[in-house]
Design brief:
The strands form eight sheets. Strands 10-2-1-14 form a four-stranded parallel beta sheet. The two termini are about 30 Å apart. The chain is globular. About 30% of the residues lie in helices and about 20% in strands. The chain is built from 13 helices and 23 strands. The protein is α+β, with helices and mostly antiparallel strands. The protein folds into four domains: about 150 residues, FAD/NAD(P)-binding domain (3-Layer(bba) Sandwich); about 110 residues, no CATH class; about 45 residues, no CATH class; about 80 residues, no CATH class. The structure holds flavin-adenine dinucleotide. The site of flavin-adenine dinucleotide (FAD) has 26 residues, from α1.
Length: about 425
C-alpha cells in the first residue's frame, strides 16, 4: 500500500517506521524544515552571535517506553549510550523525597516508599494503601476524574512531594487539570509493569538525534520518501483513493497536531464517506487545549564538574509556582555545567556513533570530516566501550559550516565545506 503520513513528530516517525516495516511504501510529509515536532532540536544564537543547539524542552523517557526504545535500535541508536538511565527518583535538593532502588516491582516501590526521606510512617502507609486500592481497581477511574480528585484525602506532603511532581513530570500537567485515568495508566505502566519500567531515561544527545533524524535517514535509505518543509493543505478522495494535495495514496495517517488534523478532516473533500462521523471527530479534536512549558537554560562558563547531586532534581511547588525540575547537563555528558529547569543535554562525548567537534566556536556538532573535528573518543577519556567507527577522516579542510540551504531530503548531506564538498551532518547514526 502507498501510505501518506502527515507530520514527522515522534508519532509520525514511529508510524512511518512501523508502516515501512509492515511492507508499505511510505511518504512522510512534514511542514517544518526539521523533524521531531514538539520534541526537536533547535539552533539558537548566543549573545555573542555563536550558534548553539538546544532542545525545545527537556524530555524524560521512562523504561516502560519499550516501543520507542525498539524503534531507536531499529534506526541505529543505542539507547544505552544515548540515554542516561537511573531508577525513578523524585528527590529535592535537600535529599528528601522518593528514590526507588533498582529492584523488580513491586519491591522497588515498596522499598522506596518505606525508605522515603522526610515522610512520616502515617504518610508512607497512606500512599501504600492508596496504591494498593488503585491496583485492586485495575488502575481505572471514572471518566473525567482529575489527578487531584483521584488523590484527594492523601496527606498534603504526599500531594506536594509525590503526586504533583509525578503529574508534572509524566503528564506535563498539574494534578488539578491532569486526567486521573492517564495518571493511573502511567503508574501502572511504570511502577507495576516490569523491572526497569519506572527507570528515568534522560537524553544524553539532542532530541533530534534520539529518534527523528535517524528515523528519516533510515526511511530514505530504505527507499521511502520524506518531504520536509511541505505542509499538507488538502485531503480529498477520488475514485476510492486518497488525494493528499492531489497526489494519490491508498491510505493517509494524520500524525500532525490536533488542530491541523481537525482542519484537514473538516475540509476534506470525501463525498463517498459519511460526513457526520468525520465532522464529529473534527469537533472533538479541534478544541483540545495546549499549555506552554517553560524551559530555562543557565550556563556557568568554565565549570566542568557537575553542580547537582543528581542529574535531575525536583523543586518544590508553591501556591504561585508549579512543580519544576532542574537538570544538570554535566551529569548527562554536557560540556559545561549547564542547568535548566526543563531542558536537555548537549553532549560532547559518550554517544557511540557521534563525532564531536573540537573547540572551534560555533561548532557544537561536527561534520565528520572537518579538520577541526575529531572522533569524540580521541578527546574523551579512555573507555572500554570505544566504537569501531567506519568514519574516515578527510584531508584537512580550513573550515566547516552548515549548508546555507536546507535540503528537502532528510539526513545527509547537510553540511558543506567551503569548497562545496557535501559532508554528512554527524549525529548519532552509523556511518557505514
Ligand atoms: C517542553 C516539552 C516537554 C515535554 N516533555 C515530555 C516528556 O518529558 N516526556 C514525554 O513523553 N513527552 C513530553 N512532551 C510531550 C511530547 O513532546 C509530545 O507528546 C510529542 O512530541 C508529540 O509528538 P507528536 O508526533 O504526536 O506531535 P508533534 O510533535 O506536535 O508533531 C506533529 C508534527 O506535525 C507537523 N504538522 C502539523 N501540521 C502539518 C501539516 N498540515 N502538514 C505536514 N506536517 C504538519 C508539525 O510541524 C509537527 O512536526 C513534552 C513536550 C514539550 C513541548
Amino acid at each position: 500500500m502507498k501510505v501518506a503520513i502527515v507530520g514527522a513528530g515522534w508519532a509520525g516517525c514511529a508510524a512511518a517506521l512501523q508502516a515501512a516495516q509492515d511492507g508499505h511504501q511510505v511518504t512522510l510529509i512534514e511542514a517544518a524544515r526539521d523533524p521531531g515536532g514538539r520534541a526537536r532540536t533547535l539552533t539558537v544564537t548566543r549573545a555573542d552571535g555563536r550558534p548553539l543547539e538546544l532542545d525545545n524542552g527537556q524530555h524524560i523517557l521512562i523504561g516502560a517506553y519499550a516501543e520507542c526504545l525498539r524503534l531507536m535500535r531499529l534506526v541505529g541508536v543505542d539507547p544505552q549510550v544515548a540515554l542516561h538511565r537511573e531508577p525513578l527518583a523524585l528527590t529535592f535538593p535537600d535529599g528528601s523525597g522518593l528514590a526507588l532502588p533498582d529492584l523488580a516491582p513491586p519491591w522497588d516501590a515498596l522499598t522506596g516508599i518505606a525508605r522515603a526521606r522526610g515522610w512520616s510512617w502515617r504518610e508512607k502507609l497512606a500512599l501504600l494503601s492508596r496504591a494498593a486500592r488503585w491496583r485492586m481497581l485495575g488502575f481505572r477511574c471514572a471518566p473525567g476524574t482529575t489527578g487531584a480528585r483521584l488523590c484527594a484525602g492523601l496527606p498534603p506532603r504526599l500531594a506536594d512531594e509525590f503526586i504533583a511532581p509525578l503529574c508534572v513530570s509524566a503528564l506535563n500537567t498539574p494534578p488539578e487539570t491532569a486526567s486521573g485515568q492517564v495518571f493511573l495508566t502511567v503508574l501502572r505502566d511504570s511502577l507495576f509493569a516490569g523491572r526497569g519500567g519506572s527507570h528515568l531515561l534522560l537524553p544524553r544527545v539532542p532530541l533530534g538525534a534520539l529518534l527523528p533524524e535517524p528515523a528519516l535517514h533510515w526511511l530514505a535509505r530504505h527507499g521511502h520518501a520524506v518531504r520536509l518543509g511541505s505542509r499538507v493543505r488538502r485531503l480529498a478522495m477520488h475514485e476510492g483513493r486518497w488525494q493528499v494535495d492531489d497526489e494519490p495514496f491508498d491510505a493517509v495517517l494524520l500524525a500532525c497536531t490536533s488542530t491541523e488534523a481537525a482542519r484537514l478532516v473538516r475540509e476534506a473533500d470525501v463525498p463517498a464517506l459519511p460526513r457526520a462521523p468525520l465532522q464529529a471527530w473534527a469537533s472533538a479534536a479541534d478544541p483540545l487545549d495546549f499549555g506552554a512549558i517553560a524551559t530555562v537554560y543557565a550556563e556557568q562558563p568554565g565549570a566542568s564538574a557537575p553542580l547537582l547531586a543528581r542529574a535531575m532534581l525536583a523543586l518544590r511547588a508553591t501556591a504561585t509556582r508549579p512543580a519544576q525540575f532542574v537538570f544538570d547537563r554535566a551529569r548527562l555528558g554536557g560540556r559545561r555545567a549547564c542547568l535548566h529547569s526543563s531542558s536537555a543535554p548537549l553532549p560532547e562525548s559518550a554517544t557511540r556513533y557521534q563525532i564531536r567537534c573540537c573547540s572551534r566556536p560555533g561548532n557544537s556538532w561536527a561534520c565528520a570530516r572537518c579538520s577541526h573535528c575529531k572522533p569524540w573518543w580521541k578527546n574523551a577519556p579512555p573507555s572500554s566501550a570505544r566504537p569501531r567507527s567506519r568514519v574516515r577522516r578527510a584531508p584537512s579542510r580550513p573550515d566547516c559550516r552548515p549548508a546555507a540551504t536546507t535540503s528537502p531530503v532528510p539526513g545527509p548531506p547537510r553540511w558543506k565545506a567551503p569548497c562545496g564538498t557535501a559532508w554528512r551532518r554527524c549525529r548519532i547514526w552509523r556511518h557505514d
